[in-house]
Design goal:
Distance between the termini of chain B: 32 Å
Number of strands of chain B: 5
Radius of gyration of chain A: 23 Å
CATH superfamily of chain B: Periplasmic binding protein-like II
Oligomer: heterodimer
Strand order of the largest sheet of chain B: 3-2-4-1-5
Shape of chain B: globular
Distance between the termini of chain A: 3 Å
Largest sheet of chain A: 16 strands, antiparallel, barrel
Strand content of chain A: over 45%
CATH class of chain B: Alpha Beta
Number of strands of chain A: 16
Order of helices and strands of chain A: HEEEEEHEEEEHHEEEEHHEEE
Strand order of the largest sheet of chain A: 1-2-3-4-5-6-7-8-9-10-11-12-13-14-15-16
CATH class of chain A: Mainly Beta
CATH architecture of chain B: 3-Layer(aba) Sandwich
Number of helices of chain A: 6
């Protein structure tokens, strides 16, 4: 953020000019350029396994990314912002993560209109701004969602409740794009691109989020609920479902996620003291009338200790989901055993039972850059296998 | 008695050290606001946007890395420079806030604050002159 974060001399001078001529408006819009980057290298400590896209050789392209943001202050409370992120995993193709007009309705309320990030959970809106948090990447059990963005309108209302600052956020939008599910490379056979991601078209209409957050800078509390009442999600299991439907077309709808209700509920609490902090966040993803499990629960607990330039931290996280039973999918219909086995097999793809423990170090070696090292042990309770993963790198803002 | 004397001398010395690095919170002379430390924190972290009398408040920082800035961040905001930057990164890249603008120097800060009743800033207490009003010292 060399230009404006801290603000440049030019802005300082403009402030002088502005303070002399309070009502003057700029002749042309002043564009601020700000950016962030994560350069991440990761490897597993085991020979034969791929974990979160990493294998036994150091890889740099998986979580490395560059983001750049342009903001134009059009004065009188109106501004326009675009933010683009280029990720190593997408061959550095840039994607618009934000593109919106912001209008300050008053000192305590504003409207954003355009492409925004969906505020599922606490870190969702700044998921890729590594400098803003202590981990290399936020806990995957909660945050490895295949969708992040939508087009819509967001209204924010800020107020104070006692000694707390309260922020209410209400967002309505539509997401209509390809979403990328992370799959085992051996199963990445349907979209013609073997990269560990299965891409599917999805359409979420009237996607609505409510977020309430409270903070007094020591304690922070967040309650979030995102609801998609008419959501069509392409699932990595859709091709299997289609094959099964050749024999039993009446169950096709129950095996797909077409125009269904899905929701993301979330509660979080954080304590930030002078020398240590702790945070807990719990998330529940639910789906109705589809192959998506009724409840996928995930959570993490993290604790960190600060020195002047370092944070030492520990995090425990889990993810848990029981798949729908064949009876739930077929409505209890009597079906041949082989068909039941096939349907159960597809549903089983949604079973989750894993726990992860991470110890990490963030070292602020530079005014705008932090070195990070995270070592994780991931226990897959379904297979009984454990994996060790090391991710390390630098997060910066500029 | 001698011990007490040397203790007092040490205390006085450390007091004078503190006094040297004191940060004065300054506003326009016409501004009659009384602000608590919490108010100041909320203002400089973008949560409080007006003075108690309802007039809009625009905080101004000293430059990043300046001794007075570090002093202010530590004593008033209770945050290290990187914690503060992490805080603003979160807001800047989600469109939820922008950090205060910077004055280039103590002299510029005094000139800005003396010339605009909306501004609130801070300087090393030894730099304060009659053009501004000190509302708190830390």
């Amino acid at each position: 953020m060399t230009a404006k974060f801290p603000f440049s001399r030019a802005t300082g001078l403009r402030l002088v000019a502005g303070s002399l001529l309070m009502c003057s408006s700029p002749l042309w819009a002043d564009i601020q350029v700000q950016g962030f980057a994560n350069i991440v290298a990761g490897t597993t400590l085991d020979d034969d396994n791929t974990v979160r896209g990493y294998d036994e050789d150091f890889a740099f392209d998986r979580d490395s990314l560059f983001g750049v943001q342009f903001t134009s202050d059009l004065s009188d409370g109106l501004s326009a912002t675009v933010q683009m992120v280029a990720r190593g995993r997408d061959d550095w193709d840039a994607e618009f993560t934000w593109a919106y007009m912001n209008y300050e309705l008053s000192d305590n309320s504003s409207i954003q209109f355009g492409r925004v990030r969906i505020p599922f959970y606490k870190y969702s809106e700044f998921l890729e701004v590594g400098y803003a948090y202590h981990w290399m990447t936020p806990p995957a059990s909660v945050y490895d969602l295949p969708l992040n963005n939508q087009e819509g309108i967001a209204y924010t209302y800020n107020s104070t409740i006692g000694s707390f600052d309260s922020s209410l956020q209400f967002v309505v939008g539509r997401l209509n794009e390809e979403i990328a599910f992370e799959v085992d490379p051996a199963q990445d056979i349907f979209d013609g691109e073997v990269d560990g991601f299965d891409r599917r078209d999805s359409d979420g209409r009237n996607n609505t989020s409510f977020v309430w957050s409270l903070t007094d800078f020591t304690w922070s509390f967040r309650l979030g609920y995102t609801f998609c009442g008419d959501c069509t999600l392409g699932l990595p299991t859709d091709d299997f479902a289609q094959q099964i439907a050749l024999q039993a077309p009446q169950f096709l709808d129950a095996m797909l996620a077409v125009e269904n209700d899905v929701s993301f509920g979330n509660i979080g609490l954080r304590y930030s003291g002078e020398s240590w902090f702790t945070e807990i966040e719990y998330a529940r993803f639910s789906g109705d009338d589809s192959l998506i499990p009724e409840e996928t629960d995930s959570a993490y607990w993290t604790i960190g200790f600060n020195t002047d330039t370092s944070v030492f931290h520990f995090t425990y996280e889990f993810e848990e989901a029981d798949p729908r039973t064949v009876d739930e999918i077929t409505g209890g219909a009597a079906i041949p055993g082989a068909l039941a086995t096939a349907i159960a097999g597809v549903a089983e793809a949604f079973r989750e039972d894993s726990e992860t423990m991470t110890i990490g170090w963030r070292y602020d070696f530079h005014r705008s850059a932090a070195f990070k090292l995270d070592i994780s042990r991931i226990d897959n309770n379904l297979t009984g296998e454990s994996y060790d993963l090391i991710t390390t790198g630098v997060s910066l803002v500029f | 008695m001698k011990l007490l004397k040397s203790f007092l001398a040490t205390a006085a010395l450390s007091l004078s050290v503190v006094a040297q690095a004191e940060v004065a919170i300054i506003v326009h002379p016409s501004n009659n606001s009384t602000l608590t430390e919490t108010d100041l924190t909320r203002m400089f972290l973008g949560k409080m946007k007006s003075f108690p009398n309802g007039e809009s408040a625009v905080p101004v920082n000293m430059p990043e890395g300046h001794a007075t800035t570090d002093e202010f961040n530590q004593k008033v905001l209770s945050k290290s420079a990187s914690q503060l930057k992490a805080y603003w990164s979160k807001l800047v890249f989600t469109g939820k806030g922008t950090p205060p603008q910077d004055a280039g120097s103590a002299e510029e800060m005094l000139k800005l604050v003396a010339g605009n009743p909306s501004l609130i800033g801070y300087v090393d207490a030894s730099k304060v002159d009659a053009s501004v009003k000190v509302i708190a010292k830390f």
